[in-house]
Amino acid sequence: MGRTRKSCCCIFLVILVIAALIAGGIAYAVLKSKKNSNASANIADESKYAEALKVSLQFLDIQKAGKLVNNKVSWRGNSALKDGSVVDVDLSKGLYDAGDHMKFGFPMAFTATILAWTILEYGESMKKVDQYKPATDSLKWITDYLVNAHPKDNMLYVQVGNADTDHKCWDRPETMSDKRPVSQINKTSPGSDVTAETAAALAAASLVFKKSSDDTSYSEELLKHSKQLFSFADKYRGLYSASLPKVKKYYNSTGYGDELLWAGAWLYHATGEKTYLNFVTGKAADDYADMDNPTWFSWDNKLPGAQVLLARSSFFDEEAGGNSVIGNYKQTAEAVMCNVLPNSPKTTSSKTDSGLIWVSEWNSLQQPVAHAFLANLYGDYMKKSNNKKLDCDGETFSRDDLRDFAISQANYVLGKNPEKMSYLVGMDGFGDKFPQFVHHRGASIPADEKPSCSEGFKWLESDEPNPNEATGALVGGPYLNETYVDARNNVKQGEPTTYSCALAIALFSSLTTTHDVDKSLS
Ligand SMILES: *[C@@H]1O[C@H](CO)[C@@H](O)[C@H](O)[C@H]1NC(C)=O
Ligand SMILES: *[C@@H]1O[C@H](CO)[C@@H](O)[C@H](O)[C@H]1NC(C)=O
Ligand SMILES: *[C@@H]1O[C@H](CO)[C@@H](O)[C@H](O)[C@H]1NC(C)=O
Ligand SMILES: *[C@@H]1O[C@H](CO)[C@@H](O)[C@H](O)[C@H]1NC(C)=O
User: Fold this and answer.
1) Nearest bound ligand to CA 87?
2) For the chain, what is the mean pLDDT?
3) Which ligand 3 atom is at minimum distance from the Cα of 408?
4) Ligand 1 pocket: which of 89, 152, 157, 186 to mutate (most atoms <8 Å of CB)?
5) What Å distances lie between residue 319 and 108, 284, 324, 521, CA to CA?
6) What is annotated as the active site (predicted)?
7) How far is the C-alpha of 496 from the C-alpha of 426, rounded, in Å?
8) In the structure, what pLDDT confidence band is assigned to residue 309 with cuts at 50, 70 and 90?
């Protein structure tokens, strides 16, 4: 008995030990896989981001003005064909800004800059999912417009349409009948912000078309305009909202120093010329760079973008990398990262309970999407340059922490949120619905109707969901309390913009595949 009991006990002990080892092993494996689960974004998630990229690019097609080429949107047709004709310039192309029919040059140029940046960094990922051509086509639709908007050295058309009268209409772009005045800036009424943003867009796009086309003449033309616009912006300084006070109500620029640095950074990347490096590291840096102070990237504030783009030079460009001011930009880009990383000692309080960066009630998704893109891109620079650590006030973070943050914001947008609502129209994503009442004229009016300016308001007020899907529209987004009211007249939450769409394209491109960024953009 005793013997048996003893051996029984012994066997029991052995089993216990083995069980403990197995349990420990499993727990270890689970913990390990948990730790890596987000960073190594599984295949299923990557294909979600690829789908989100395809969907979001379609919104740029919906926003196209002019004589459409290979139009794939059944409810869209030619429109605004005579834009610019009052001044004998062809301003028919370009993109409508949002749910309205305005062409606002300031945010439109920003849209182009972001799209070009995305193609430069993540073009290979776009190619893998057949989105490279749609992306470059949409970019060219804007840059064709921007080139035409710059008919003389020190003059730039920065708006088509009168926002006050345009907003009194609810009609389709194809049948709009109100006057389409154009607004310019020039030597006596300058606008360094919009001019420099346009210069940034054309410099970035010149790199895209240098790579993507055998014919380099278009790229050279863009670069020529970019250089000229930069010197116009630099030489005749001023806010465009001072020269054209009517823009204050819509896209009031709060400064032009950020755009000058951003354009200088892009021109340095596009040309490699010392002049531009000297510009961004010289007096303009003292005046405008706001070193070590993390701010929010948006259509108005380009500083975080300029900081990350110049940090790129610090990582990969031997000549610029040794410059101490470029080092300061990199340090400031790090502060931008430490501001958004959820476990950083410096983490911002501007976020919702579930961790979405939240800065503004209008267009609330703009900043989380923009910063998720910047964070993932910065992480990719770290990876490529073998920089393993990011220091935030004594605590270290890795490239994977940046990617996890980007994924958390992207997943929120795609439905992992308390509303279980995907904020990207046309895709349920991780949620179970997407908005049906997007504030968008063209989407809200049946395509066979031809309402006049005022006749269309019945569709704004209708209780029926939009008859046309504004596929790829990223709506404004949730309130701070993470609720969303899906109503057509809820402009704050429900109006999609082209620049937020470009930022979403940037974020989804960066998550679509794990691809190493190139050391050089040219
Ligand atoms: C310069 O631009 C301002 C603002 O758009 C405009 O009022 C003025 O007529 C322009 N000047 C010239 C010479 O065209
Ligand atoms: C526009 O920006 C300027 C410069 O920052 C600011 O002084 C002004 O209050 C702003 N106006 C509006 C209407 O937001
Ligand atoms: C990582 O994934 C886990 C499990 O899916 C999730 O609970 C967590 O919120 C994710 N973290 C981030 C930063 O996305
Ligand atoms: C959420 O916030 C919005 C905007 O501040 C407010 O109108 C709404 O009542 C809030 N909803 C809840 C459930 O607290």
Assistant:
1) 1
2) 94
3) 14
4) 186
5) 33, 20, 11, 15
6) 439
7) 13
8) very high
Looking at the predicted structure, is the pLDDT value of residue 33 above 60? no
Give residue limits of the domains in the chain.
Answer: 45-512
pLDDT, tens digit, 9 for 90 and up, residues 159-213: 999 999 999 999 999 999 999 999 999 999 999 999 999 999 999 999 999 998 8
Task: Name every protein residue with a CB atom under 6 angstroms from any ligand 3 atom.
Answer: 37-38, 404, 407-408
Is CATH 1.50.10.10 the right assignment for the domain spanning 45-512? yes
> Among 88, 154, 188, 241, which residue has the most ligand 1 atoms within 8 Å of its CB, making it the best to mutate?
188
Active site residue 440: no
Partners of 157 in the beta sheet? 184
Q: How far apart, in whole angstroms, are the C-alpha atoms of residue 17 and residue 79?
A: 76
**Which H, E and C letters describe 1-63, residue by residue?**
CHHHHHHHHHHHHHHHHHHHHHHHHHHHHHHHHHHHHCCCCCHHHHHHHHHHHHHHHHHHHHC
Of 277, 405, 430, 273, nearest to 337 (Cα)?
405
DSSP state of 471: T
Question: Is the pLDDT assigned to residue 456 strictly greater than 90?
Answer: yes
- Higher-scoring residue by pLDDT: 289, 19: 289
The catalytic residue among 225, 371, 439, 440 is 439
433: tokens are 């619905």
| Centre of ligand 1 from the C-alpha of residue 517, in Å | 44
CA dist 202 and 216 (Å) reads 14
Helix, strand, or coil (residue 216): coil
Which residue owns the Cα nearest ligand 3 atom 14?
Answer: 408
| Cα separation, 40 vs 18, whole angstroms | 31
The Cα 507–Cα 49 span in angstroms is 9
Ligand nearest the Cα atom of residue 342: 3
pLDDT at residue 471 in the model: 98
What tens digit of pLDDT does each residue of 78-94 get?
A: 999 999 999 999 999 99
Q: What is the pLDDT of residues 268-288, one digit of tens each?
A: 999 999 999 999 999 999 999
Report the C-alpha gap between 148 and 78 in whole angstroms.
19
Instruction: Tell me the average pLDDT across 34-61.
Output: 79
Least confident segment among 30-44, 365-379, 443-457: 30-44
